[in-house]
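Review form for a predicted model. The reviewer records the input and the model, then writes brief findings.
Reviewer: anonymous (R2)
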Amino acid sequence: MHGAAQQQKTDSESSTRGFLFALVAYFLWGFLPLYMRAVDHIPALEVVAHRVIWSLPVAGILLLALGRTGDIKVAVRQPKTLMMAALTAAIIAGNWGVYVWAIAVDRTVETALGYYINPLMTVLLGAALLGEKLNRYQIVAVGLAVAAVLVLTVDAGGLPWVSLVLASTFAAYGYLRKTLPVGPSQGFFLEVLILSVPCFAYVIWLETTGQGHFLADGGRDIPLIMASGPITAIPLILYAFGAKLLRISTIGIMQYIAPTMIAIIAVFVFGEPFGTARIVAFVLIWAGLALYTWSMFFGRRA
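Model under review:
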């Protein structure tokens, strides 16, 4: 009896710790547009390159602190693991690039919509690639997301490609990342290690040709650029640890925190328009997310 009570207390403490890890991660992601706006005078590709380069020491220090450097030595000797890590690294780099560019050109609301669509895209991906059956609530939820995309397409005269690219790349990254046979922190280090080779070459080329921003204007941007490392790595690492300690349904609800904060910042801080079409689209998405969340808790029982 005493053992069961002790176990329950331990589980509760782990859940609380996991909740705090994930909460901090989502809040940091929610405020990320403010940093991206501060570096919007730097081309998106250069920002992504520096995010990779300055994430590498953060991820390396964490591995040393955890004593998990041996996992990396094993992984780099396995061509299949390296190829899979290179693929996930390329996908997340593409996601970062579109995100940075979108904020720089005042399309932050579209990034928020993309991360709202993401969980529904993940459900669709599971059905398409893993043969997972969608329940009736999930089918309706995906249908509402499709309706939202159609509303935005008609209003803009073209597909909301920023939202769709962000949603699909992040869903694909999440799906493929699970197949990488290393832990979260080791996987992140491996990804930035692989990306750091072309990123270093690109930044050196920019600086030697006078196009780079790291040494420009007497190094005024150096602190801002170096900050991209911890700003990128810390929330990802916190999220990874939080996800390990929480139920997937809890993470499922918490993932709406960041896009909600992004949408609020886009409208009230950046002053981006939020017209009728976007209101209708967001209502449809929120209705779909409500159904999706409800199905996680009660759909299986029903």
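Findings: The chain has one domain: 11-299.
Further findings: The CA atoms of residues 12 and 289 lie 27 Å apart.
Recommendation: see findings above.
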